[in-house]
Amino acid sequence: MKKEPKKTFFDRDHLLHKIESEHQIWDVLIIGGGATGLGVALDASSRGLSTVLFEQSDFAKGTSSRSTKLAHGGVRYLAQGNIKLVFEALRERGLMLKNAPHLVSPLSFIIPSYRWWEKYFYGLGLQIYDWMAQKFRMGNTSLLRRDTLLKQMGNLNPKKLNGGVQYYDGQFDDARLAVNLAQTSIEQGGVLINYMKVNQLIKDAKGKVTGVEVTNVETGKTYSVQAKVVINATGVFVDDILKMDNPGANTLLKVSQGIHLVLPQSFLKSEHALMIPATSDGRVLFAVPWHGYLLVGTTDTPLDRHQLEPKPLKEEINFILETLKDYLKEVPTEKDVLSVFVGLRPLVLPENKEVGTKEISRDHKLKISASQLITITGGKWTTYRKMAEDTVDQAITIGDLSTGPCQTKALKIHGYSNAPAEDEAMSFYGSDAKGIAQLKIENPDLDYQLHPDFSFTAAEVIWAVRYEMARTVDDILARRLRILFLNARAAMKLAPVVANIMAEEMDKDKDWTDGQIRDFQSIAKNYLVDPTLGEVLASGRLQKVE
Ligand SMILES: Cc1cc2nc3c(=O)[nH]c(=O)nc-3n(C[C@H](O)[C@H](O)[C@H](O)COP(=O)(O)OP(=O)(O)OC[C@H]3O[C@@H](n4cnc5c(N)ncnc54)[C@H](O)[C@@H]3O)c2cc1C
User: What pTM did the predictor assign?
Assistant: First the structure.
């Protein structure tokens, strides 16, 4: 293994040095490194604005790694009549595919029809959806006969099935896109640093926000950083920053949680995704093939309190398993669940606060406080680019910044590659796959597989530390390689292996390694449905965990 890690563009110490040495007033300072904040950083840096972003944990540690991973217009929003949101999201879906084809791809969805009218009703709605996508259409909606449908989705419940509808939407890898957005912004001159928590806003004598106090979570060192415009992009935590600004500020959000169960893909016996258009609580439920597994979700449970590492509720798990019973022949039970992950929705409260969370609009909200703090929240992953454009346009006015128009409509995202990947499992690295292959050639001792169910090698761990700002075992297993999201027990088993590889690369001691393993096991427990079960392999076999 190489002892001397190379200093790279995406090197955290190098970026931190810029904060320590350049006592400049930044044009734009962003709090929060999820889809929203990263999008804003990319928009601002690519317009030539001096840009800094602080994330208290890892990039996409919050909701932005825990979505259903659909780049979509939102069939449900069409049914709700939110035409503007659907038009906008369909256009953004197309731009995501154009600019990050290594991470975004079209996917075929099937809606089974169990009542005579369903296929005609949904078929018509989805033809309108296709038409609304205009030049960004991903495929053509068609009606399917019963026998064709049963061939395409082998485990579908045939009782009373009269056919179905096939339509196309987009699918992506959310945490990988987040890392690639951060890399692209840094390549455009931005300074984006993870594990930096903003504790306080700095104001001038007139009460205008002029910067933040931010602590390096790894060292405890605190910095005062000045900026012409400060942007609050902290997802479900925006109210905390708004209260830092003004303790009497009204609450902006209602937070709701959504869970996903991850199952062996054999539960669908299909490469198509299943869309259940009306669950018993009036929502839609997706069962989507992803990285060789099946993601099923989601739920919508209003919360009164929330945390960065949320936990699934027993009722939510039961709800998903119960719903599947009506649609599948062979039905999964709790012991088949390989991982369960939870995301928190930042839903902007309407004036009428009595409305249920599933009726709250998914539109984004831009708020300017009296202190000129800009808050951007709500929306969807799919619309991150447009949200960023609107926010930076606003920042230019507030900060009287001189720069040109938005550049991101045609800006290729780091890793951009149109060529089909030689190795399917490496496709999400896009053009970076070549660099990983080269690392293995230079260091053949890194070319060993970490786990029999995953093709990743030690080289991908080193790559994530050197070139993707991974700092912890959780960063690697949850958001760089996604194993925690796919099979929590496999990830727990891998934690010591990954901690040791990282420790050698980062020159860390045994205390660090032990602490990392402990921290990861305590996070990963939240991804298990039943901690007493053995390790369930993707093949469906149950294996005892030592
Ligand atoms: C269950 C579920 C499924 C979804 N599925 C989809 C989907 O399929 N497609 C789609 O388009 N959208 C989907 N969404 C919506 C989408 O995921 C969110 O809109 C988006 O991820 C929100 O991103 P964000 O950056 O605003 O928030 P977050 O991702 O939560 O990021 C906020 C960040 O701010 C950081 N932060 C907070 N406080 C501080 C501080 N003091 N200092 C520094 N940093 C701080 C946090 O650590 C966090 O990383 C889904 C949402 C949920 C909940």
Answer: 0.94
- Ligand 1 lined by 55 (C-beta under 6 Å): yes
Percent of the chain beyond pLDDT 70? Answer: 93
CATH of domain 12-63+176-252+349-399: 3.50.50.60
CB atoms within 10 A of CB 250: 8
* Ligand 1 nearest-atom number relative to CA 299: 1
Confidence of residue 79 (pLDDT cuts 50, 70, 90): confident
- Give yes or no for residue 408 having a pLDDT over 50: yes
For ligand 1, the distance from its centroid to the CA atom of residue 174, given in whole angstroms, is 10
Q: Which atom of ligand 1 is nearest to the CA of 260?
A: 1
455's tokens = 């093709």
Cβ atoms of 66 and 526 within 8 Å: the answer is: no
pLDDT surpassing 50 at residue 209 = yes
Side-chain-side CA neighbours of 526 within 13 Å: the count stands at 18
The H or E element containing residue 226 is strand 222-232
Chain Cα centroid distance, residue 325: 28
Distance CA 259, CA 343 (A): 6
Rounded to whole angstroms, the Cα distance separating 472 from 301 reads 30
Domain 99-171+254-346 sits in CATH 3.30.360.10: no
